[in-house]
Design a protein that fits this description.
Layout: E1 2-5, E2 10-14, E3 16-18, H1 27-37, E4 47-53, E5 63-68, E6 74-79, H2 88-99, H3 104-117, H4 124-131, E7 149-154, H5 159-170, E8 174-179, E9 181-185, E10 188-192
Parallel strand pairs: 6-7, 7-8
Antiparallel strand pairs: 1-2, 3-9, 4-5, 5-6, 9-10
């Protein structure tokens, strides 16, 4: 990527690709926070309903971000920094299976806990209704046909991950991989997803 000098119609500066690790950036404190505050970087409107969700029975595992899409589907968002590792697909499939049993009332409670933890003083049912364009909460179907979506965000995807994701897509699972690349220009950082 390059910065363009429009006035002189020339390439002014190349943007230098950077790694999260070399800049001392962290998964939770940086990438996850950026996505939670601006989920539209993933290309659509999402309602983040929980961070670091660990409300699964009989396991200590926790997923990075839990969201709803405009169709009422649960969206599991797993973030990795510079590399996915080999086992991220197994990880997100487990999380999606855990979320498959979430009821509308579970989702409301999870979101209300999130709002309370953030000290927003908001009511989950009202925020969900607002996200769905003012539709009455009672009329909204959430996780109704148990079609959880999976989104992975990472700087690099290993062959083990991309091969598995391509295979899963053949079975109509809703899995997306987003490449997160950092660039620097002077003291500024630019995130391209």
């Amino acid at each position: 990527m390059f910065l363009i000098d429009k006035e002189n119609n020339k390439i002014k500066h190349p943007l230098k690709e950077r790694k999260f690790g070399e800049l001392g950036l962290k998964e939770r404190q940086n990438l996850q926070k950026w996505i939670a505050e601006n989920p539209e970087v993933l290309g659509e409107e999402l309602l983040i309903i929980q961070q670091e969700f660990d409300g699964f029975n009989e396991t200590n595992e926790r997923l990075d971000l839990l969201a709803l899409d405009k169709n009422g589907n649960i969206v599991v968002i797993e973030n990795k920094l510079d590399d996915t590792g080999r086992d991220v697909t197994w990880q997100v499939l487990k999380y999606a299976s855990y979320c498959s049993t979430l009821t509308k009332d579970n989702i409301r409670k999870i979101y209300q806990d999130y709002l309370d933890k953030k000290g927003l003083g908001a009511i989950a049912t009202e925020k969900i209704s607002e996200f769905f364009g003012g539709t009455e909460y009672e009329e909204i179907a959430l996780n109704h046909i148990q079609t959880q979506r999976i989104m992975m965000v990472a700087g690099n995807y290993r062959k083990e991950v991309t091969s598995t994701v391509l295979w899963l897509l053949n079975y109509k699972l809703k899995v997306q991989c987003f490449k997160a690349t950092l660039y620097s220009l002077g003291d500024n950082l630019i995130l391209d997803v």
